[in-house]
Write a structure and sequence with these properties.
By secondary structure, the protein is of the alpha+beta class. It is 46% helix and 12% strand. It contains 7 helices and 6 strands; from the N terminus they run αββααααββαββα. A hairpin with a 6-residue loop joins β1 and β2 (29-30). Pfam families: ABATE, zf-CGNR.
């Protein structure tokens, strides 16, 4: 299936993962509707190094990647429920008991530190990396992005786009917390055009 480029407009990678299914123009698009889509989305999100994605793609059977994409979609919809259940107010420690599915994914990680050249500079630095031993490891960076969102984002800033039929979420980091749209280019313009048409009708 030909997909448009994934949309990263939420100002949070955790919410961008939820937005990996959306209706950017007229027809719904699921960027992770199969294993190839998951690989492509992870590449665009820069969550997995390209060489690791290429190696996993060459090593894993398509059916394995499709199974991981199924798991990613299940994770996405579970996390959507969690976010919508807590959006609009600060998250408290009471929410921890709901986060078992995410902690289970994080517990599978085989990450470790290595000394490596400092990226783009002289010298050495500690670099975190992980063993990408199976297709299932593709869920790990997603789980990490969701966990960072849970622990670092103020849920009071989480909003749903006000666009008609739009399902996208975003973190409103504007100064006055006045953001209303996923993007002005899509839903913002649609709303402006609808308001303009409405004004013209009222004058007739």
């Amino acid at each position: 299936m030909d997909r448009p480029p994934a949309m990263f407009v939420a100002d949070s990678l955790g919410l961008d993962f939820l937005n990996s299914v959306a209706t950017p123009v007229d027809a719904p698009v699921d960027w992770i509707d199969d294993g190839a889509g998951l690989i492509d989305w992870l590449s665009q999100a820069k969550l997995v190094p390209t060489k690791e994605l290429d190696a996993l793609k060459a090593r894993a059977r398509p059916v394995e990647l499709d199974k991981v994409a199924d798991q990613a979609r299940d994770l996405r919809e579970w996390f959507r429920g969690f976010v919508l259940g807590h959006a609009g107010r600060p998250l408290t420690a009471k929410a921890l008991h709901e986060l078992g599915p995410l902690n289970s994914i994080l517990a599978r990680d085989e990450a470790f530190l290595q000394i490596a050249p400092r990226h783009g500079q002289e010298g050495l630095a500690l670099q975190r990396t992980r063993r990408w031993q199976s297709a299932g490891a593709l869920l790990l960076p997603i789980g990490e992005a969701l966990a960072k969102f849970v622990c670092e984002e103020d849920f009071s800033n989480v909003k749903a786009c006000e666009g008609h039929n739009c399902t996208m979420l975003f973190a409103d980091h504007t100064r006055r917390r006045a953001r209303r749209w996923c993007t002005m280019a899509v839903c913002g313009n649609r709303a402006k055009q609808a308001a303009h048409r409405s004004r013209l009708k009222s004058r007739q």
